[in-house]
Amino acid sequence: MLQLDGISLRLNKTSILDEVSLEVSAGQVVVVLGPNGAGKSSLLKVASAEMKPDLGRVLFNGRPLSQHSARDKALHMSVLPQQSSLTFPFLVRDVVALGRTPHDTGAVIDQGIVEQALTATDAWYLRDQLYTNLSGGEKQRVQMARVLAQVWLPTDEAMRLAILDEPTSALDYAHQQLVANILRQRADQGGAILTAMHDLNLAAQCADIMVLMCCGRVRALGTPEEVLREDILEEVFQVKFHRTTHPHSGRPWLIN
Fold it and tell me: Which of 110, 131, 146, 196 has its CA 20 to 30 A from that of 94?
């Protein structure tokens, strides 16, 4: 479990997060939603220990996150930032293999996981290309494969968590849906996902829990059915929505 209790964060005397609390359990996809500037990325940075909160605590697998060593965190937690900067001309397969660095599983197993992760993200055909020559969407899928490879296998009874900031932002419709399916599959296999998204409909198709943020505070938290209410969404996004039901998934579907 990842547990954030009463997280508050200030930058340059400006409140970025204000008493935010949430939990992520094994087998769950938790999606953080909200307009630009709502605090989504800052919340994920606190959850991954990239930023230290001014108030509150973060527990990971039952212990304060600050008590985990860098290697212990790397064995159980992988992070996809909103922007991944890599300027060295590595082969794609080598970029994804970086996700296996914390593990002692051996070259044969690691190579197999790299192939599986690249295949899952529809990027296996890119394996021998230079990462720097790829398009933005291709780079994002390769980075997604790296993050998946890092937590592909359980290392022990502790939870495996992937924290993903806008993992579909540079992707076309087909690959957005592919990533949503991957998140759902990884959770169904016992992993845990904490991700920020902008697309409400895409989030509704894969989320167990939604966290709707506004101005650094949690405005609504619960299932997609509980959070994606027309009145709440209009208040937060200043846009009118009409909610219906997806004909195949039975989950909420929004039209504006």
Answer: 196
